[in-house]
Every structure is written in C-alpha cells, then in structure tokens.
C-alpha cells in the first residue's frame, strides 16, 4: 500500500473513532441528567467584535460556522492537492469519480423529492442526503487495511471529495438569507483578493488566510453559511507556487486539529438527539423516511449509475486493481452521510422536532450503510 493510502487509512481510523466518540457522548449528554446543562451550553450566547462589526451567536453556531471552517479548509486543500498533484491530476482521471459523485447526488435528491412532494417544509431538506462523509468512509475502509487495494481507497476518496464539493456549492447557492447588502462588499473583496493572489501565484500562505477571514466574515454577516469560506481558501491555493514544505507542514498541523478536535466537537453538539421515543408527527416522519431511502438506497444506486454511465461512454475507467465488486462496496459506503448532512439539517430546520428526527435518521441510516459496506467488502 502506498504511503499516501496508508496515511489516509490511518487518519480515517483515528478520526472516525473520534467522531463516533463525540456522537456517543452527545447522545449520552442529551439523554441523561446532564441534558439541561448540555442544552444551556449548546445555546450559550457568544459575541465577538464591537458595534456594527460584532457577530453574536450561540455556541453551536460558532462551532458550525467557525470551527468547522477549519475542516472545510482541509477538504478544499485536499481536493486541490488531488486535482493538481495527486490521483486526479492525470487527464481524465477525475471523470469516473466525478460522474459517480454526480449520480450519487442526483438520485438521492430525486428520491427525497419524490417522497416529500407537495410538502414545502419537508422539501427544504432535499440536500441532506447528497454528501458522503469521507472521514467515516475511510474509517470503515481502515478495518480492511492491507486487504483493500490503494486504488479502491483513491476511488472512494475522490468520489467523496466531489460529493463534498457539490454539497459546498449547494450550501453556498441555496442556504442562508441575505439580511444586509454591505457585507456583500466583504464577500466580493475576499473573493477578489483570493483570485488575485492565485493568478499572481503569491508564494506565501498568510495573505490567503487574511482574505479568507474577510470572506468568512462577509458570509456570516450576509446570512450565508460561513464555513464554506474555508473550502474556497483551500481550493484557491496555488500549490505549485507555494513551497511544498510549507503546504505539508500546514496540512500536518491542521489535519489533527480538524479531524480529532473540530469534527468530534461538531458531532458532540449536533448529534445529541433526545431519544424520547414519542411518535414523530407525519411531517417529521416523512423527512426521516426520505433521508433513509435516499442514503441507503438512492446513494448506492446513484454512485453505480454514474460509474456505469462513465464506463459506457468511455470517459472513465476503473482504477487499475479494482473491479465492479469494489465499486459496489464503495457505493454502499457512500450512504454514510454524516458531517455534511448534520450541517445541512441545522441550516434547514434549526432546532425543531423535525431536526431531531432528521438527525436520528441520518445517524441510523449511516450505520446501516456502513454495515452494508462492511458486508460487501467482507464477501468480495
């Protein structure tokens, strides 16, 4: 197994375990005598800045739009690296996972739409099942360390990356409400600065981060999800012009913080669902069924449809050393929608009974998808 694949598996094992611990602790806190304290801390108001430049939000928002920015930056940086220097840098190498990811977004969304047609509130959750959680997928694949070809890991990672990019684009286009116009100037300035730095191949990381902070503040103040600024900054870096040691050092420092602290904190505060076992109202039940069917059935069908389409059209080939059995296993694992799904639930339904039911549906459906993927790789 290559060094890159080995590192990906190792990171996936550790981060996946940390994420599940965060989720378990959140569930325990929300369903124990600590529930009141958990709720108080969850919504603890925090204010940063002064006057009209101040941002005041509960702690959960600072985690979802502040700390999670670091995780999104890691996604953008990893995608940038794969497209410029990694497994997707060769001409046509990205077509198969891109086609698979596109199918894996369209089919689940279509299933969710079909099951919730006519309900305008429930339809707000159409994007919940479109993204794959790359951390947990790598965590599951780590259980087969040494028995899974590195090409399978590369294919699964690439498809998940394109999924995440699609989710980031959808969040940017369809989520958030514009409350004021002047923050748009900050967004425009941040984007312009990043584009200028990229075009001039500026060799220092600091200016990118500075303009990224401006972009992040503009997103938050204009009502757009601020965390996506991280992905934009990571994707804007001209890796060929930056010293490779600088990029590698930055990634080594950021990765443990993002995967072992930020994401577990996110799951702890977003995954604490109250298990009161009270029957959900029809609207919440419809949302849950839509999510479950989209993740467990729609995601694998979409991934396989996109893969077969690319193979039939001749625009992509399976990586050397992989087969359609491997593609089926990856497609089943793609139903693990977690971090992005919980993030979108918060943007869709805030703190409501529908949100609680939707989170439970994501957690349980992701568990089923992981089990099916484990079985598929076990018998391959």
TrEMBL record:
The keyword Transmembrane helix applies. It is a multi-pass membrane protein. The chain crosses the membrane at residues 17-42, 92-114, 126-144, 151-175, 181-198, 256-275, 287-315, 327-346, 358-377. GO terms for cellular component: plasma membrane. It is found in: Cell inner membrane. InterPro entries: Na/H_antiporter_dom_sf (IPR023171), NhaA (IPR004670). Gene3D superfamilies: Na+/H+ antiporter like domain (1.20.1530.10). One of its GO terms (molecular function) is sodium:proton antiporter activity. Keywords: Cell membrane, Membrane, Transmembrane, Transmembrane helix. This is Cation/H+ exchanger domain-containing protein.
